Amino acid sequence: MGSTMNLLIGLAMGLNLLALGSGRLSAIIRATAVQGVVLGVMPLLLEYTFDWMVALVALVTVAVKGFVIPSLLRRAMRAAKIQREEEPLIGFVPSLLLGAGGTIAAIAGARMLPLLPEHAGTLLVPGSMASILTGLILLIGRVKAISQVCGYLILENGIYLFGLLLIHSTPLLVESGILLDLTVGVFVIGIIVDRIQRAFDSLDTRKLTVLRE
Amino acid sequence: MRENLLIAIPLVGAALAFFWRGDRTRPLLLPAAGILHTGLALWLLVNPPLVSPGAWFGFDPIARAVLPAVSILFLACAVYSVSYLRIRTERSNRVFVASLLAILGLLSAGHQARHLGMLWITTEAVTLAAVPLLHFNGTSRAFEATWKYLLIGGTGIALSLLGSFCLGYASLRGGGTGDLTFVGLIAQGAGLSRPWVLIAWVLLLVGYGTKMGLAPMHTWKPDAYGEAPGIVGAMLAGGVTTVAFTAILRVRAVVSAAGEGAIADRTLLAIGLFSMVVAALFLLGTRDFKRMLAYSSVEHMGILVIGAALGRAGIWAAFFHVWSNCMTKGALFLSAANIRRAAGARTIDEVSGMSAVTPRSAAIFVTGLFAVTACPPFGPFFSELRVVRAAIETGRAGVAAIFLGCLLFAFFGLTRVVFAVVDGRPRTKESKAAGKVNERAGVVLPPLILLGAALWLGLATPHVLTDAWTEAVGRLVTQP
């Protein structure tokens, strides 16, 4: 179980770097979607016995993060006729370097955190920290709304990964409530992206600068 | 079971509003739910129910000390919105009414949440329910504000989720069960793993601090409050920020039980003072009277967290200030909305002499200004005085000095803008010499009543309230 899980988390960490280094929006969306699917199936690996509620939650997560949101973003991308992230605030190479450095630091730093013995051997904590960092870099460093949404999704994936540490102690009701909220949140963001595209005829958040002191 | 009705009534109302046909009658659901909710909240304030220790939701002393204030504020906003939505007939109010009711229900749930996970779920749901309200005006500027609100607020709330998980892990690592009820966490106390408690504290403070609008996480606030209708500003500044504040108070109690209370208090003091300084500086510069209210809100959030850091007397003062802030901010936002509608603009470059155009609203606005800048005998004066006293009593004269200095600068900034808007030759966006505008009772009475409540809080604070605050403090601070 542990090795499959570590493999999947390693894959998610690779997808982080892919999202950071790529300038094509479709590539960032794809990386985010694949990461959502990879992480969505993880609760099934962690459960000792098969539970239909966990399976349902996993299915919904995979469907929303892997298919619904990406297709929403792709639609917005086509409507706005943009393909690439141009002139990001933090360039692709610097953000890639930051992300790679952050991933290494996360792996080293997780060793220093007091973890329970059953979590010490897994990549759960470093993977989570690396994804959170990647999400923040994308949120801060990119100017297209679509990339920022992807950054938010990756940040959320990282938190989700951390939440898996508690999967055996948190009541399922709380977990599903949290997942529902996150899902609706991403959905609302997707809708607003769509509206911004129509109102401004662009998805460049640098144009959102009327409101400043 | 009655306390669950506080959550259920508005949520049922929201569902009803969503399926209600008829734009003219739908807004009446707001005051209907508001009256029921306020009545019930006040009844529970006087007759507090028993809360079973392990319950996830309950009208416990902390909810009792704060929730009725939100309820009263909502009622005033609800009455106001009936008149307001009569004016705004150009767009459907279906989503607006439903969202506003949903926010009330979720706020009631958030205030009563005794489980860290449930607290997070309700706060996030409130954040999302507010989105349609923010872009109700449908302008591109409103969408810009909504985008910032979603992105900054979303990131903040995501970090608070991470913080909640860290606190759960602190319990697991310390040999506990990972139980996320506040009672369970406090009972584990020193058994919690210290490093994880500290990580959790930082994340939760940043997360819920974003929701409160503490500097430097406040940047969404001026945009959102500036672009949203006045009712929404009032509910955000008085209601949503309050639930985030009680969240911080509840978490602080856990951190303090784990033996890190001193660090928690120091961070609260630092972030509170920083918020006050930032707010005072921006108040001196702003030219827009709705954004001014947002910076004033940042300042008052700073006052709340400073109070929370000053021990028993400070937390008591903070509860007092929650009430004062709710009432005065409500009065200010609603009267400012009247002025803004009559003037058609929001900056002192375009608007002046509103005392001749909207005399009643202008009078409330000016009186509200004196209330919010802590002039006696309004509530904020007494609550802020108690914060200062708590600071001096705990030997933090420096904090008291910075606090008073910021209040002074905020006073300069606020009076500068307010009198520029109210005084002078009548001038609105449409006309260089505007005439008097008819002000309906429906949009004047609610802010007036809130202002009266702020005055009442200052002159004769009801005993039932002071008792409720004392009991809540006793629950939050275990050691003297």
Structural account:
The complex is a heterodimer of chains A (213) and B (480). Chain A has 213 residues and is mostly helical. Chain A is 76% helix and 0% strand. Chain A has one domain. In chain A, helix 1 runs antiparallel to helix 2. The mean pLDDT of chain A is 83. By secondary structure, chain B is mainly α. Chain B has one domain. Chain B is globular and about 70 Å long. Classes of the chains: A mainly alpha (213), B mainly alpha (480). The interface between A and B is large, with 40 and 48 residues.
Euclidean distance between termini CA atoms of chain B = 33 Å
The SS-based structural class of chain A is mainly alpha
- Whole-number mean pLDDT of chain A: 83
Distance between the termini of chain A: 54 Å
Strand percentage of chain B: under 5%
Shape of chain A: globular
Radius of gyration of chain B: 21 Å
Fraction of residues in helix of chain B: over 70%
Let me know the largest β-sheet of chain B.
Answer: none
Q: How does the helix and strand content of chain B classify structurally?
A: mainly alpha
**Mean pLDDT score of chain B:** 92
Number of strands of chain B: 0
Sum up the overall morphology of chain B in one term. Answer: globular
SSE order of chain B, one letter for each helix or strand? HHHHHHHHHHHHHHHHHHH
Strand content of chain A: under 5%
Give the uncertain stretches of chain A in residue-range form. none
Please, how many helices of chain B? Answer: 19
Q: Share of helix among residues of chain A?
A: over 70%
